Amino acid sequence: MRRGFIKGAVLVAAVALSALVLLAGCAKPVSNQYAIVFKNTGNPYGDKEMGGYQQGIEEQGFKAILRAPDQPTAEGQIAIIEQLIAQHVAAICIVGNDKDALQPVLTKAMKAGIKVFSLDSGVNPASRAVHVNQADSEKIGQTLVEAAYDMSGGSGQIAILSATSQATNQNLWIDFMKKTLQDPKYSKLELVKIAYGDDLRDKSVSEAQALLASYPKLKVIIAPTTVGIAAAGKVLTDKHLGGKVFLTGLGLPSEMATYIESGVCPYMFLWNPLDVGYLGSYVATALVKGTITGKVGEKFKAGRLGDYTITQAPDGGTEVLLGPPFKFDKSNIEEWKTVY
Amino acid sequence: MREIRTERPWSWRSFFFQWEWLLVLIFLAVNVVNSTLSPYYFTADTFLSTPQTFLDKAFLVLPMTMVIILGMIDISVASTAALSAVIMAVSFHAGLPMGLAAVLCLAVATACGLLNGILITRFKELSSVIVTLATMIIYRGIAYVILTDQASGDFPKWYASLGWGFIGSVPIILVVFVVAAVVFGLLLHKTSFGRRIYAIGSNATAARYSGVKTDLIVLLVFTITGFMAGVTSLFLTSRMGSTRPNVAQGYELDVIAMVVLGGVSTSGGKGRIAGPLLAIFIIGFLYYGLGLVNIQAQSLLIIVGLLLILSVLVLNFRFGSARKARPSVSVDNEGKEPHIRPR
Predict the structure, then answer these.
(1) Which of the four CATH numbers 3.40.50.300, 3.40.50.2300, 3.10.20.30, 3.40.190.10 does domain A137-270 have?
(2) CATH top-level class for B38-319?
């Protein structure tokens, strides 16, 4: 019986292989598809960012492909990029889960003639043409430390609740926060812990609870990620710690409105994720058209956002900066919470 | 003395009436559907380089088939892979040459498997689910203690080619996997070791009274499983370029799903290596093909889940009707192997 099975299987394999050889030589159609790969699914910030990308791509008459793995891992993104390479998309916009792990697959995409660039969370300079940065990373770091200084009254324990320990953008901001904290002005602020909620709601909630349990004197939580800040807001509200422990960071107005109105989070910052994605869509088409190649000084027009110039990035590559971060507080949250 | 035939005579009817044949049909159907959905699917590149993305966990399918034929289960495999990867990365950064670090990775994984085996054979009142559930948590826990929430990488260039490299136009990982599959196929179907695995899975007590050293076989199978988790870890880490304690999360369930879809009975004693092998490629190409038409991640999980339920239902239905159609007495008279029911 087993021998019979092998006989049959060999037959089937032979037929399949000969069909494969016949079809393998077929011509490949030219693509008008522009892909974006976000960190993971079920992330409202990512949905907005991909939405902005889609809007920009479709407005120029092309087709957008929006993809994200179900877990925020590089493994998942590698599998998706392999599939996009096989589809011969025109460009891949990657919001990286890991700075270096994606390099082999992104290099493979570039060799296949696909334009590759990163957006929001970057990949290393060797694996991208250019990076689309939502705001000056150094300024984000300084702004968040200044906010913590303001909320704590100038002294006390502070903690950071980040995304994954591999998230490129968060790590860069945290580095600038640490650098800013060395300024004598902030010498009385003590950074006690950097916790990683992995941009997953349940892990972020338990990490926030752990922070409060291990540091009862904690004054401020800085969460430079939309998932983390919303989770921390929920925990602080449930434990009635509003007014004792303050929260700031980067959050979506729609998710954070209740916490800003209740005072748990006096104010926070963000850029418009729709605009980040939208800017990315024009970088994609400019790269494919050849208007830009990713060199410092090159200029292009990004639809309703106006003109942009490529600048030097701190990591040695090049980048496009969207603009300064925007402050949300009690005075303006009402108007923004329905926008994004 | 009447001669007893150990193999059934080959016929077209029995050939088509096999689970593996149905899997071949499912595999072809997946390919036909994928080719219809996407013009990019049916290329040489799909069949040669896609396996790179799913073969790392396929190394676990081979020993898991043995474990499940034993009537047991090992859910600690993914944690074992994570722990061995973390120890490899840490020891490499502590100054160990990469070659030795890779050997250490395999040694740690083998030791994890051996520990599972010792616990299972020493404490018979504990089932393999409980033991490996405990070690699953412990192994990943140790990995977290060693690296906390950090990642470790920067391996030498040659190591990356393990996961990404090609021999000619065939990926290295595919070549190694074919060799491993042949070795496991021979072990399971051509050696007395393999026959003893089936004997224990069918009826452990009967096997022990027939002189099979059941504890030794179980210990060996779990140790082999640990070793293969090390192999998975080597390839996965090479492809990722770095490792973290939460790497390979959920692999154990993917692997068990592949083995079950391959027609291996979870009550033990039944199934062949060909089934899980086909199941690896069915699930792998299904994911890839549906990804090509940009179906979101969650929908993919639902489709694989449905396929699994469907296959188990069909499998039960087929075995049930086959049993009724051919009473065991006539089977014995024809010199065929008598039907052994698992306890």
Answers:
(1) 3.40.50.2300
(2) mainly alpha
